[in-house]
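wait is this the right file?? whatever heres the structure
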């Protein structure tokens, strides 16, 4: 038997679990704003909190990712933050934020803005990550985990579960998407190519994606091209490729990726989504 040191937040965990046992689920606020990959990497922590605390969980996320987060069945409520027009929508956002009283607010973004959101929620306890910046730590009651930035982002997020002494599965990605509205041929394997990326240094040359597409088509594989439209990935696609770039919402993107048998991608948000859905990814 291996003896583990007591969790620093063990007393907080016990109190929250006692609330759940009494029939009053503790209210937990999670602040993870962006990007798409970062949102995906927070899902194992969401699963650990929900399973370990029996809590009612509200997620504050950038508005563009709100519908995606609503596809996570362990999230009870989504509070969108409009990053594009923060001042215009601030009164309505603050009204929604302060409508509930939270027992715990967990900031997993680690910026001054996200820490301020967590603090303005008037939660009894505000926790923040080891990788916080911009003086965000001054707004936390406690900082969770060691500052080891060479770890995968999933493991850094899961410091929250370790702090509370909760069991966690780094491979748990609770997402449920509807059937895709995009017509896909029945009975054929589907390969999704994601040739775009925000940074040029992350883009495999598009002509190589096109060559792979031609080879897959020759093997009777249905080939989709997904992602944002015209981000360093234009031209040269062979006939028969279904080009859906810029034509799918995030929910539809997840629905299509759920049907894919293979994903070939650059280092970009949809690649992390594909991996979370269990797709074989190159």
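ok assuming it is, sequence goes like this
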């Amino acid at each position: 038997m291996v003896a583990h040191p007591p969790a620093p937040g063990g007393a907080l965990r016990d109190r929250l679990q006692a609330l759940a046992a009494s029939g009053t689920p503790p209210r937990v606020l999670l602040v993870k704003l962006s990007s798409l990959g970062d949102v995906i990497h927070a899902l194992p922590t969401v699963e650990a909190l929900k399973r370990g605390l029996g809590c009612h969980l509200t997620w504050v996320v950038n508005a563009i990712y709100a519908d995606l987060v609503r596809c996570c069945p362990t999230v009870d409520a989504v509070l969108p933050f409009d990053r594009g027009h923060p001042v215009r929508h601030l009164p309505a956002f603050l009204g929604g934020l302060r409508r509930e009283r939270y027992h715990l607010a967990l900031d997993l973004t680690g910026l001054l803005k996200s820490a301020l959101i967590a603090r303005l929620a008037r939660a009894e306890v505000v926790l923040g990550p080891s990788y916080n910046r911009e003086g965000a730590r001054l707004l936390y009651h406690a900082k969770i985990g060691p500052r080891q930035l060479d770890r995968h982002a999933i493991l850094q997020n899961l410091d929250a579960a370790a702090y509370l002494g909760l069991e966690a599965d780094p491979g748990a990605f609770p997402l449920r998407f509807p059937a895709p509205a995009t017509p896909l041929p029945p009975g054929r394997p589907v390969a999704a190519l994601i040739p775009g990326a925000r940074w040029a240094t992350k883009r495999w040359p598009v002509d190589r994606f096109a060559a792979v597409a031609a080879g897959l088509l020759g093997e009777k594989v249905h080939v989709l091209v997904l992602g944002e439209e015209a981000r360093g990935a234009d031209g040269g696609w062979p006939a028969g490729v279904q080009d859906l770039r810029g034509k799918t919402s995030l929910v539809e993107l997840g629905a299509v990726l759920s049907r894919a048998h293979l994903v070939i991608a650059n280092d970009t948000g949809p690649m992390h989504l594909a991996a979370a859905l269990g797709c074989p990814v190159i």
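Residues 206-218 form the longest helix (13 residues). so i think its the right one actually
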